[in-house]
């Protein structure tokens, strides 16, 4: 049975006249040019296409970094005895983990900060920005363009590269693991490449060339995680750097995107629910931009261009259904532009990406031939539904081994997110593949608040409907148990960032459903965070969580589910939290306060229960440096898996050897 994936695609087919001769070079005043230029784009008819937009991937450079942890066992004045003896298995684990942590860290997702332009490939080699001829990409014959050590940053790496149209310049965004702030360098390409300029706190950036063959760099400036300003700069003899646009609404942010054919630069102004796009003519970048559609509350859209037609990806209108392989859960666009074909990859949490190509001329989809991954035969993927408290059917995606017997006795790892209208991430993860091979059941709960079923699905799980997501999650786990998938004593739950709200709320309201929980950079103190307007993202988050500072209804509603506010003396599942010291999005203070309050409640409950009560383990692993962009180091992965195996009392004799194999994928 093939999966029907609903893509909210609606294409607006437009004739694109030349956007006018070069006008006087001037700053853009907010929205002044919309009425004058919008009528220059003639609406023709709707056009459907499923290949629209991709965003640059961030290279995930895993490194060994020190960490400090403290456990509930260190803080409670209660003697505890293990219910199980796993010393032999733990010795095996420690041996394998030592090997993993001492060998070079390797990426296992097919993403990298490299770009092809002209006849060259630009990428990072060691601590240098380099390029080599395309046909020599597999050799070590490369040209060093810039040494990152000149910036005097701690372990810098490149996460984005852009090359000027005529290859006179290359720009690269460089950051470190302990900050989201990035520096953009511009290198002049010549016999002896030299850094022409550098700009601090850059988020997105793109090149265009004006009618005088001059390269122009547009970039956004980020301050306290907020991108409100766009600048444009030129180099060489005609060097300048000027502000191009400023967004006045603090709840919106800006990112730049160059259409795949490089014909237009799009300036995307958006918040969590609404967007507005301006087109900057790639042939006349000094002309005023053209507004596609002014912002309408609740309407999100993005723009792509091909063959003098605009393609609009939006959440408005009827969806188009496409049939995909039954195992497909993740979609990854190819970053290289091809006007005749659309190349992309499909994957699942346990299946590595497989390449597909959609040929426009033939209107047909072609898949990569060759070796078929064995996981498609040795595992099953199920699409099931749970009935929530109000009768709403909530979809779930479940994976397990085909030959598994008595699934009720198998460990279960449940995944959830449910916020911002974002789909639960289901890209390939080697550690998830290893868990399924070792007999685990994986379940992905697509609860309200996420984006899997469209705009209304998100609306029904935000603001004063956030408790719907909690009810959905509880219904999903109960349905899994009711249908014979595992049992509470073998059930674990995992989430990242905003997904921590639902997980923390469930631990308070129905902890008996779970044995163990792993959280990463979790959002756990919703009320205090949303009342602190000094935090950089509070204003942007108001449409998701509400405004408890000015709206008493919002304040009282948040109190009903906020994980921190609802901690009480009772039995809790064991919880492993990974936090990052310099996380600007989820402040460490809120996580530490949550952990401390939870430990106090457990201490009280342990005293009330008396001798013989086995208290749960609460572990807070604080990674020094770091930020909200997760770096998937072997150390972190193995620590989380070790925690799950220990808490569920499982034999891990073979799992870490298998994990070592797949981390080399």
TrEMBL record:
One of its GO terms (biological process) is proteolysis. Residues 428-642 form the Peptidase S9 prolyl oligopeptidase catalytic domain. It is an enzyme of class 3 (hydrolase). Its EC number is 3.4.21.-. It holds the Pfam family Peptidase_S9. SUPFAM superfamilies: alpha/beta-Hydrolases, Peptidase/esterase 'gauge' domain. One of its GO terms (cellular component) is Golgi apparatus. GO terms for molecular function: serine-type endopeptidase activity. Residues 107-317 form the Peptidase S9A N-terminal domain. Keywords: Hydrolase, Protease, Serine protease. Belongs to the peptidase S9A family. Homodimer. Interacts with the AP-1 complex. Serine peptidase whose precise substrate specificity remains unclear. Does not cleave peptides after a arginine or lysine residue. Regulates trans-Golgi network morphology and sorting by regulating the membrane binding of the AP-1 complex. May play a role in the regulation of synaptic vesicle exocytosis. This is Prolyl endopeptidase.
């Amino acid at each position: 049975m093939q999966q029907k994936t609903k893509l909210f695609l609606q294409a607006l087919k437009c004739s694109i006249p030349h956007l006018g001769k070069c006008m006087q070079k001037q700053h853009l005043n907010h929205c002044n040019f919309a009425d004058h230029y919008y009528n220059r784009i003639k609406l023709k008819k709707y056009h459907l296409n499923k290949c629209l937009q991709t965003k640059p991937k961030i290279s995930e450079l895993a490194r060994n970094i020190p960490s400090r942890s403290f456990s509930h066992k260190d803080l409670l004045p209660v003697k505890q005895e293990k219910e199980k003896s796993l010393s032999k298995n733990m010795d095996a684990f420690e041996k394998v983990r030592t090997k993993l942590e001492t060998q070079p860290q390797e990426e296992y997702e097919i993403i990298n900060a490299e770009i092809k332009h002209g006849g060259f490939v630009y990428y990072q080699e060691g601590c240098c920005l380099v390029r080599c001829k395309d046909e020599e990409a597999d050799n070590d014959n490369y040209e060093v363009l810039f040494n990152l050590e000149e910036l005097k940053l701690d372990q810098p790496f490149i996460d984005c590269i852009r090359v000027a149209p005529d290859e006179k310049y290359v720009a690269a965004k460089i950051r470190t693991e302990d900050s989201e702030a990035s520096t953009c360098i511009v290198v002049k390409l010549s016999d002896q490449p030299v850094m022409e300029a550098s700009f601090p706190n850059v988020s997105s950036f793109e090149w265009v060339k004006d009618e005088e063959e001059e390269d122009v760099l547009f970039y956004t400036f980020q301050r306290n995680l907020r991108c409100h300003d766009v600048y444009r700069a030129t180099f060489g003899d005609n060097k300048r750097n000027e502000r191009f646009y400023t967004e006045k609404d603090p709840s919106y942010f800006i990112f730049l995107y160059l259409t795949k054919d490089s014909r237009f630069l799009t300036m995307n102004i958006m918040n969590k629910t609404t967007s507005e796009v301006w087109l900057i003519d790639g042939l006349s970048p000094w002309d005023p931009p053209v507004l596609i559609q002014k912002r309408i509350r609740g309407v999100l859209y993005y723009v792509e261009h091909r063959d003098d037609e605009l393609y609009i990806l939006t959440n408005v209108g009827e969806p188009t259904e496409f049939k995909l392989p039954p195992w497909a859960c993740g979609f990854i666009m190819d970053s290289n532009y091809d006007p005749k074909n659309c190349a992309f990859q499909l994957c699942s949490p346990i299946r590595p990406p497989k390449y597909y190509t959609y040929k426009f001329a033939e209107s047909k989809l072609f898949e990569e031939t060759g070796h078929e991954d064995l996981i498609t035969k040795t595992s099953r993927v199920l699409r099931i539904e749970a009935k929530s408290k109000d009768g709403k059917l909530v979809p779930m995606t479940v994976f397990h081994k085909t030959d598994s017997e008595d699934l009720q006795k198998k460990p279960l790892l449940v995944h959830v997110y449910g916020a911002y209208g974002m789909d639960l991430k289901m890209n390939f993860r080697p550690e998830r593949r290893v868990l399924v091979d070792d007999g685990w059941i994986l379940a992905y709960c697509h609860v309200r608040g996420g984006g899997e079923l469209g705009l209304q699905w998100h609306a029904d799980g935000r603001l004063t409907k956030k408790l719907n997501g909690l009810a959905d999650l509880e219904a999903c786990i109960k349905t899994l148990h009711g249908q014979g998938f595992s049992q509470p004593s073998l059930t674990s739950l995992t989430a990242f960032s905003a997904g921590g709200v639902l997980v923390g709320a469930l631990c308070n309201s129905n902890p008996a459903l779970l044995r163990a929980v792993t959280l990463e950079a979790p959002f756990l103190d919703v009320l205090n965070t949303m009342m602190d307007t000094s935090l950089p993202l509070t204003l942007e988050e108001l449409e998701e969580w509400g405004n408890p500072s000015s709206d008493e209804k919002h304040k009282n509603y948040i109190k009903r589910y906020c994980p921190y506010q609802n901690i009480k003396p009772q039995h809790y599942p064991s919880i492993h939290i990974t936090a990052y010291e310099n996380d600007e999005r989820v402040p460490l203070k809120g996580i530490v306060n949550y952990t401390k309050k939870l430990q106090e409640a457990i201490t009280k409950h342990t005293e009330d229960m008396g001798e013989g009560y086995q208290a749960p383990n609460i572990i807070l692993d604080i990674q020094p440096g770091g930020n909200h962009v997760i770096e998937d180091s072997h150390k972190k992965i193995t620590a989380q898996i070790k925690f799950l195996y220990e808490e569920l009392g499982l034999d891990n004799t073979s799992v870490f050897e298998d994990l070592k194999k797949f981390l080399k994928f």
